[in-house]
Amino acid sequence: MKVSLKDCQAIDVHAHPYIANAVPFTVDEYVRKLSLAVIPNQISPNYKWVKNQPYPGSNMWVQILTGRLAKYFSCEPTLEAVVAQRNVKAANYKKFTRELFQDAHLTGVVADFGYPQPPLSKTEYADLCGARIWEVFRIEPEMVRLGEECQNFGEFIEKYRTVLADALKRNEVVGLKSIIAYRSGLDIAPMDQGNAAAEYEAFRQNTRAKVKSFRDYCLHVAMEECTVANKVMHIHTGIGDGEVVLPKASPSFLLDMLRDSKYEKTKVHLVHGGYPWVEEAAFIVSILPNVYMDLSLQNPFSGHGVKRILSQVFEFAPFDKVMYGSDAFTVPEMNWLGVQLFKECFEEVLGSWVESDYMDAETARVIGEMVLYRNFENVYQDQLKGAIT
Ligand SMILES: [Zn+2]
User: Fold this and answer.
1) What is the 226 CA–ligand 1 centroid distance (Å)?
2) Residue 304 lies in a domain
3) How far, in Å, from the CA of 22 to the mean position of ligand 1?
4) Helix axes of 153-169 and 212-229: crossing angle, nearest 10 degrees
5) Per residue in 281-294, pLDDT tens?
6) Residue 157 and residue 34 share a domain
């Protein structure tokens, strides 16, 4: 029996804001906007290109996006035709964005305004999307800012704590976020004030320096402030852009910290569900009552992989621990395809569970709703009304 999620609303629990491109995109620029790569793909002048070949450097996700957008625009399923249509529609960027959100039944986004830098306007982004926008407050830009301002570690930590506590008091802020996996990795050591203070000067000299003790200490302070405020600590796990410390990005490195009795009540949100270590994330959320995960980034950027992931993640993860996300970061098409692809893939997976007689179609549909928005509403229920609209 078919399970349909078509009319189900979705809340995107991890994405980034963007603004309209000032001039229409060339195909090359558009492909670059869709890529996680830090260094743009180079097409050599001697590159041999045959008819019907996908655009050089494009992968499955770009292929799927092209096909689905061609249907949405009613145009030829080629990247050239899609970009041409996109440029026409995006001339009215607000209309274009809002229609994509409505088509996907996307009613809310938890936005990480830490990327891009300098931060974009929150109210303008909410107006652009026509959806509820919540904010997750990134700690690293504050560390950099206070590093310039504070002469010594003691002064830094005092101000840093105050800044985090003040941010957490704002209604639209659902929690704090750390990208420590981009700097020193997820093997967080216990708090060590002496070592952290000793590395403070090195951090001031180079704010991208590893300075692991210092960064670990700052993450603990963020965990403590989230605990006090009863808001959620978001931690980047798994792959990201090309800068990530990949050998230390698996969520399993977080286990010692997460199991610490000090953080028993702290809500933690594993951003990107640790992809490609998604089964490890699924296990972690299954053993720790206050730890949750989302499927952003792996959805939609793993393309056809989304179906496999949805099947795999529920080998261990409880149904109420996994949330929908996209990690859209440059264009609203990312938010849109995120929902469309996720729904298509989940419908197939849920349908197979019904067929196997693991559950009836009604239960399968409810599991779809849980992941698409109900779990978010449960975990973040105290913050729901704080959204920027
Ligand atoms: Zn992100």
Assistant:
1) 20
2) yes
3) 23
4) 30
5) 999 999 999 999 99
6) no
